[in-house]
Write a structure and sequence with these properties.
Blueprint: H1 11-81, E1 99-103, H2 108-119, E2 123-128, E3 147-151, E4 164-167, H3 174-177, H4 181-202, E5 205-211, H5 238-258, E6 262-267, E7 270-271, H6 282-291, E8 305-306, E9 309-310, H7 311-323, E10 330-332, E11 338-339
Parallel strand pairs: 1-2, 1-4, 2-3, 4-5, 5-6, 6-10, 7-9
Antiparallel strand pairs: 8-11
């Protein structure tokens, strides 16, 4: 049997019971309300405390960032306050001092040429895209009043006022120039056109760094400048060999048609400080294998011949050729060739 207020007494009794139940509910609500408010207030306080902690952390991070920035600025200012020491250079007055552009000036040969020209007292502008060149090769000149470094690819035109141009820009070791053969060809053709055009516009003398590779796989040893070579125009190294041959052709076309003063240096094997250890040529290969205590590798029968010159001798030759009145191609290298197996 189900029980309810409707089962008890008269209507007045039932009304009284309902009123009593309502009063009980109302009293219970008032008794529970403080507990509910306490829970809500506790939750709100926890949230506020969490937000406060987050704001404090963010404030600390912002403060630390500000202090780090201030410290970086202080370090930069300290660097400027401490005078940088440069290698000793000659003093030239404005009549004797030249503005000289060296393309590829952050590379192996280029950086040594820059050292020579800077020490002679000239203003030197280095242009390099840092494909094989390294900023550290010329970092000892950065900040000097006579030195300027421009990150630029000579495949794109360059507008600058100079008196002389040494055009050395091009990867020169097989692994580097075969990595991107199209780029190698463009550097030695389009890049050379841009430099010859610049020389024409500003009436500057220009030296083109060619290579002994224009002789290909020679059948005559040693090669004279009159030797036309034994070449393969579609071989794996052709991007470099033919690129340099075209560069020479362009040089003499500009000399004949536009009266540009050109000098062409055919550079043979060169070694010295700052050369790439992984450039794939015999000297660096031998040195690297010796340092790593590995067996020296000789490709082929070992009777093939090479000539080797030190980089400072090459720089002397480049400067002497630039300052001369001789305009035909010149071999720059050691005239004495050695068998590869005879060098061990």
């Amino acid at each position: 049997m189900r029980y309810s207020v409707y089962n008890f007494g008269t209507s007045q009794q039932r009304a009284a019971i309902i009123c009593l139940l309502f009063l009980c509910l109302l009293a219970g609500y008032h008794l529970l309300q403080p507990l509910l408010k306490y829970e809500i207030n506790s939750k709100t306080k926890n949230e506020e405390k969490l937000l406060k902690n987050q704001r404090e952390v963010l404030s600390e991070i912002t403060s630390l960032k500000k202090k780090i920035n201030e410290l970086e600025i202080s370090l930069e200012q300290a660097e400027f306050r401490v005078p940088k020491t440069f290698p000793n250079i000659k003093f030239l007055n404005y009549k004797d001092r030249k503005r000289i552009l060296v393309t590829g000036g952050a590379g192996f040969v280029g950086s040594h040429l820059v050292d020579y020209l800077m020490k002679e007292g000239h203003e030197v502008i280095v242009v390099d895209n840092f494909f094989t060149g390294r900023k550290r090769n010329v970092e000892h000149w950065i900040g000097h009043g006579n030195f300027e470094l421009i990150h630029h690819d000579i495949v794109n035109p360059l507008t600058i006022e100079v008196d002389e141009i040494y055009h050395l820009a091009s990867p020169a070791s097989p692994p580097h120039y075969m990595l991107n053969p199209v780029k190698t060809i463009k550097t030695n053709t389009v890049g050379t056109i841009n430099m010859l055009g610049l020389a024409r516009r500003v009436n500057a003398k220009i030296l083109i760094a060619s290579t002994s590779e224009v002789y290909g796989d020679p059948e005559i040893h040693p090669q004279s400048e009159s030797y036309w070579g034994h070449v393969n125009p579609i071989g794996p190294r052709a991007c470099y060999d033919e690129g340099k041959r075209v560069a020479e052709t362009l040089s003499y076309a500009y000399a004949k048609q536009e009266k540009v003063q050109v000098r062409v240096a055919r550079i043979f094997n060169t070694y010295g400080p700052r050369m790439h250890m992984n450039d794939g040529r015999v000297v660096s290969n031998f040195i690297l294998q010796a340092l790593q205590n590995e067996s020296i590798t000789i490709y082929g029968h070992g009777k093939q011949t090479r000539s080797f010159q030190y980089v400072s001798d090459l720089v002397d030759g480049l400067v002497a050729l630039m300052n001369s009145s001789y305009s035909l191609p010149v071999n720059l290298g050691n005239p004495i060739e050695h068998n590869i197996d005879g060098n061990l």
